[in-house]
Write a structure and sequence with these properties.
Helix content: 25-40%
CATH class: Alpha Beta
Number of domains: 1
Length: about 130
């Protein structure tokens, strides 16, 4: 059974692959049936399932964001759960910059990412409302 440290390393690698725009490497870390749940109030909200679903999510995500990154990421792990806190920094296609604290909760299964659920401090502020 993977340790919390090994699980944290896997989530770190996921972030690193995404930051490097290496989607195939990020998708390779997913368990079958992986689920991403985004707040329904977002333009890319909803549930995204599997590697295909995550790839579809990123197409929807980047139809709104021209660029998005996570700054000051910290990881906390216990058993099969890793929590990542960060500041999300996004630039819309209209050139507006948004900064917002966020938390992402990852569940792991057998050394792979089984699910991810981000929690944004204020989704209305994220969208500029």
């Amino acid at each position: 059974m993977p340790t919390p440290e090994a699980n944290t390393l896997l989530v770190r690698q996921f972030y690193e692959h995404l930051a490097a725009s290496d989607l195939p490497a990020a998708l390779a870390l997913l368990a079958p049936g992986f689920r991403l749940v985004q707040a329904p109030s977002l333009p890319y909200g909803g549930e995204w399932v599997g590697a295909t679903g995550l790839a579809d999510f990123f197409r929807a995500f980047f139809s709104y964001w021209a660029a998005f990154s996570s700054e000051d990421v910290a990881y906390f792990a216990a058993d099969d759960t890793v929590v990542a806190t960060s500041t999300g920094v996004g630039t819309t296609h209209a050139g507006q910059v948004r900064r917002l604290p966020m938390v992402q909760v990852y569940r792991l299964r057998e050394g792979q990412l089984a699910s991810a659920q981000p929690f944004y401090f204020d989704t209305a502020a994220l969208m500029g409302s």
